[in-house]
Amino acid sequence: MSDHRPxxxxxxxxxxxxxxxxxxxxxxxxxxxxxxxxLSSLLRxxxxxxxxxxxxxxxxxxxxxxxxHLFPGLADVEVLWVPVTWLLLxxxxxxxxxxxxxxxxxxxxxxxxxxALLLEVMEE
Amino acid sequence: xxxxxxPGLVALVVVSLATLAIGTYGLRISRTTSDFYVxxxxxxxxxxxxxIGGEYLSAASFLGVAALVLTAGAQMLWYPIGxxxxxxxxxxxxxxxxxxxxxxxxxxFAEARLGSRRVRALCSVLVVAIGWLYLLPQFQGAGLTLTxxxxxxxxxxxxxxxxxxxxxxxxxxxxxITFVQAFQYWLKLTALLVPAAVLLVIWAGDGAxxxxxxxxxxxxxxxxxGQGLYTTYSIVLATFLGTxxxxxxxxRFYTNPDGRAARRTTLVVLALLGVFYLxxxxxxxxxxxxxADADDTLVLELPRLMLDGLGxxxxxxxxxxxxxAAFLSTSSGLAIAVSGVLAQDVLRGNYSGIxxxxxxxxxAVCVPLAAAVLAPDLSxxxxxxxxxxxxxxxxxxxxxxxxxxxxLTPAGALAGLVCGGVGAGSGVGxxxxxxxxxxxxDVLLGxxxxxxxxxxxxxxxxxxxxxxxAVPRHAGRFMVRLHTPEVVPLDRG
Lengths: 124, 493
Description:
The complex is a heterodimer.
Chain A lengths: L21 H8 L3 H28 L3 H7 L7 E2 L2 E2 H40 L1
Antiparallel strand pairs in A: 1-2
Helix pairs in contact in A: 1-2, 2-4
Chain B lengths: L5 H23 L4 H6 L6 H12 L2 H14 L5 H16 L1 H6 L5 H9 L2 H34 L3 H52 L19 H18 L4 H7 L5 H19 L2 H10 L8 H9 L2 H39 L5 H22 L6 H24 L5 H25 L5 H7 L2 H18 L8 H9 L10
Helix pairs in contact in B: 1-9, 1-15, 3-9, 3-12, 4-13, 4-15, 5-10, 5-12, 7-8, 7-17, 8-9, 8-15, 8-16, 8-17, 8-18, 9-13, 9-15, 9-16, 10-17, 10-20, 11-15, 14-15, 15-16, 17-18, 17-20, 18-19, 18-20
């Protein structure tokens, strides 16, 4: 019966990457027209993201001096016995900065993932 | 010396010994030149973020903010906000690309991007100038703190800090400093947090006296009239944009494993700084409520003002330890950045890598130390703020345009660096010479960022457009490296 013994098969996971991604990244390295298109799309996306976050920063935190310059009476407003200026400038602003940073990191990493995916898709 | 000095002295000795001990631990694993400059680029985000926080929170943050807010009120809150928001701007515009550039220092980046020895040389001069401008007040602050804590002559504190920094930096370089500075962030946070908590309990027990006497202006977040508005926006611009151009801040980014880690590190730094900066205004308000004297050592004196006996002594020891850690860590970071540049650009021809770094460290510390000891009355406290203005007017446009605009040329970079440097530098000179601002000229020169930063950007762009033919040939390829994520296998040179 030893004749019918099934042939041994090595069991492995699915191939992680079907091709070595040389061709497209080569385009980028060698600054071909195609490579330029890839890169400038990533660059534009990341720059637009950066500008959006900085605009949010300027509109919120950056506008405060102007607001208090135009309406100095606001400085006398108190919330829970604390002047509102102290609450805004001493406390609230910090979590807001972290939030803006968190949003940027998430979006920037997603843009990069999409870019890497696009390159892989182009391989196939 | 009276017994009042004992807690301060104990704190000083403990912090110095702990710093040297942790530095020695790092020394055991510091072997190569790459370890010395960038800790072999293998520092994980959380450790690295603590180290950046530890390095960044200088005497100005630990002692200065509380004292400024006590004296001038809410308008001074813009300094800590700007020092934190500066990291957000850095995160958004430069963190990951800067790491991917693969350079050691700011001059390295300039040369790699623009391929020009002259731009590199100018950057080296600027790094050393900003570094020394920033080191000088650290040493002076150390002198003041030691005088307040143990009644020592002012030069002692400066010399002690200088000696510990040279020993640590020279022996282990970036690798050992990373551990030291991470430790010092947590020490500084504890040293402000624990006393603040205790003092707030005492304050509540005293019937929560209202911080009075400041007048209505104390809660207004900017000065009066057009000059106040200009000054505030100038401070905002200098701090938001200047952080990315400080030599000791930038050098830290090369220690991250990759661009993604550089971003995550910066995000953690934002959080760490935010937590820290909640505390100084508490000291200012308590100081106001208890009628503390308005001077630079408010944070050191407040515990004894509110609490007698052993409790007051212990808390005094703790805040003194934190203050001393602040001087040590910031001066170490600056010394590393300056000695890296000195070693690479001045000494490399004559000495081997690590020897050059050690000689560079000694020179980097000794020059500002001598200035601090020989000219203790030099009015540099305000010039620290101007170090930010200089950085914002020189390295900020170079980094932002270099990373995001292919058209930057060496001539454009030179023009911008010179315009920004001379503009903001004249402000430094004017402030050191003149002092108190009164007329619009004083105001404009005292806080130059609001005009010198746009001037530098404009000069860089206009001259680059005029010399369009001189765009370096490898610029496109270099920008590919800056913006392509590491998962994409590229020829990274």
